[in-house]
Automatic annotation (TrEMBL):
Listed transmembrane segments: none
PANTHER family linked to this entry: 3-OXOACYL-(ACYL-CARRIER-PROTEIN) REDUCTASE (PTHR42879), NADPH-DEPENDENT REDUCTASE BACG (PTHR42879:SF6)
Family indicated by similarity: Belongs to the short-chain dehydrogenases/reductases (SDR) family.
Organism from which the protein derives: Gordonia amarae NBRC 15530
Keyword terms, alphabetized: Cell wall, Oxidoreductase, Secreted
Compartment(s): Secreted, Cell wall
Name recorded for this polypeptide: 3-oxoacyl-[acyl-carrier-protein] reductase MabA
Main location: secreted
Known catalytic reactions: a (3R)-hydroxyacyl-[ACP] + NADP(+) = a 3-oxoacyl-[ACP] + NADPH + H(+)
GO terms assigned for molecular function: 3-oxoacyl-[acyl-carrier-protein] reductase (NADPH) activity
Database matches in Gene3D superfamilies: NAD(P)-binding Rossmann-like Domain
InterPro entries per the UniProt record, alphabetical: NAD(P)-bd_dom_sf, SDR, SDR_fam
Amino acid sequence: MDLGLTGRRAAVASATSGLGFATAQALVAEGAEVTICGHDAGRAEQAAARLGNGTRWIVTDLTHPMAGERFVTESVELMGGLDILVTNAPGPPAGTFATARLDDYPKALELNLLSVVRMCAAAVPAMRRGGWGRIVAITSISVRQPIANLILSNTARAGATGFLKTLAREVAADGITVNSIQPGLHETGRVRGVYGEGLDEEIAQIPSRVLGRPEDFGAAAAFLCSDQARYITGVALPVDGGVYQALQ
């Protein structure tokens, strides 16, 4: 299926590895012009080289306020506009209500909520000028079903989901769709780092009994960026191997 993405300009945040990289890879495969960011110059340059097709890279640390806005602004300058924004950021440290400090919450909100707001604020004007846009946020299944020992991520990403749903309604008439994808456990360094030796036990709880493949996640993200997905907006899509159990 041709997703109609040839020549579209996409900014994919935190895309030097994991699900961000897989999403950038899927967009490049569909002919999109892509700019990625990462906090380490060497890794960002290497990831862009692996992606190929002239992928550009920017160094930015999304833990810093305004870094997300700068990433989008610089991407617009590099590519001469912007059609697609994929928001993404590393997860905050693990922790529970008992172990997380109050000082940890503002940092988590900056990383996984306010960075999303700032990137969208920078991207929407360019999309409105073009009369077409796709915003896809990589969040977490924890928005629907909180994950133990990840209270900071659960809290921040839930706020981002509320923001994205509201934004979707406000920009729909401008030809801009806003959706999020809520990954469960995938074969990434982040997942292996969080669960360590307990990962096999977690996999046993997944109905499909396997970790998700990043490339399959990337394909789902690319579809939401497509022409065919023009009537899908305000959706939060679980990609989790069947972990989420509720009817709604």
